[in-house]
Amino acid sequence: MTDANPGLDVRGLHAGYPGRPVVHDVDLTVPAGQVAAIVGPNGCGKSTLLRTVARLHRADAGRVYADGADIWEMTQRQAAHRVALLPQSPRAPEAVTVAGLVRYGRHPHQGLLRQWSREDERAVREALEATGTTELATERLDRLSGGQRQRCWLAMVLAQHTPVVLLDEPTSALDLGHVVDVLELVRQVAAAGRTVVMVQHDLASAARYADTLIAMKDGRIVSRGRPHDTVDEALVKELYDLEADILRAPDDASPIVVPRSRR
């Protein structure tokens, strides 16, 4: 156990693959009820970091505490009660319905002595309601639009009822309207008291919807803080080797990145 506040607490994390270290000495704390967005160039270790935090990839060193408990001192099933991960390109069984998909989120709560219960049914119903997918419950997932499918995947993660939710590029391949819908849903999840950590490529959307922005490069955190204070021309240059102007949104002054032409 640890004396950390409830939420996510990562200490001195190193992770990688045989002969190829990827994540180097990462310290990260995200309190309950907040959204942290991880940004950085492709291949900088963002997805490996999330997989390691979710206990799907073994760390070479370091500790991960979720809601005050070390997930590496638990079984995989116990850890799945603390942390849920939605990967970049999730795959569903063929012809699964939306309700069937969301029920998968309750699998960590099943066992020989605990079968499907009213609590599970309630968790599925609440997840469908929270994501606005109740009317899609009987539809086949593969017949829905990209935005609808993403909300259904989020419903599955919410049904898992974990205090920590990890989202790896939850808005990839979505149009602007669906991006806003998903990110506003992310804010609602945090407002309900959960800790959300998401990988996000678009700096502007990350800055608008996150409480904390975490910038990674070459497997290390190079900057972190409030998006309004963190996103500037120097950070864009460091992360992407790109000259850019930083404008401010008229409603909340969140930073908007306008790349300059390379010509």
Notes on the structure:
- This protein has helices at 46-53, 76-79, 98-104, 118-130, 146-159, 176-191, 203-209, 227-230, 233-240, and strands spanning 7-17, 20-31, 35-39, 61-66, 69-70, 83-86, 164-168, 195-199, 212-217, 220-225, 244-248, 255-259.
- It is an alpha/beta fold and 263 residues long.
- The protein has a 6-stranded mixed beta sheet with strand order 6-7-8-3-9-10, with helices on both faces.
- Helix 3 (98-104) runs parallel beside helix 5 (146-159), helix 4 packs antiparallel against helix 5 (146-159) and helix 5 (146-159) packs parallel to helix 6.
- The longest helix is centred in the last third of the chain and has 16 residues, at 176-191.
- The radius of gyration is 19 Å and the shape is globular.
- The termini are far apart.
In short:
With 263 residues, the chain is of the alpha/beta class.
Which descriptors would you attach to this protein?
four-stranded antiparallel β-sheet, alpha/beta, 263 residues, six-stranded mixed β-sheet, globular
Runs in which pLDDT lies below 50 for 5 or more consecutive residues are none
The major beta sheet can be summarized as: 6 strands, mixed
In spatial order, strands of the major sheet run 6-7-8-3-9-10
The H/E string reads EEEHEEHEHHHEHEHEEHHEE
Number of helices: 9
Structural class: alpha/beta
Beta-strand fraction estimate = 25-35%
What's the topology here?
Blueprint: E1 7-17, E2 20-31, E3 35-39, H1 46-53, E4 61-66, E5 69-70, H2 76-79, E6 83-86, H3 98-104, H4 118-130, H5 146-159, E7 164-168, H6 176-191, E8 195-199, H7 203-209, E9 212-217, E10 220-225, H8 227-230, H9 233-240, E11 244-248, E12 255-259
Parallel strand pairs: 3-8, 3-9, 6-7, 7-8
Antiparallel strand pairs: 1-2, 1-4, 4-5, 9-10, 11-12
Helix pairs in contact: 3-5, 4-5, 5-6
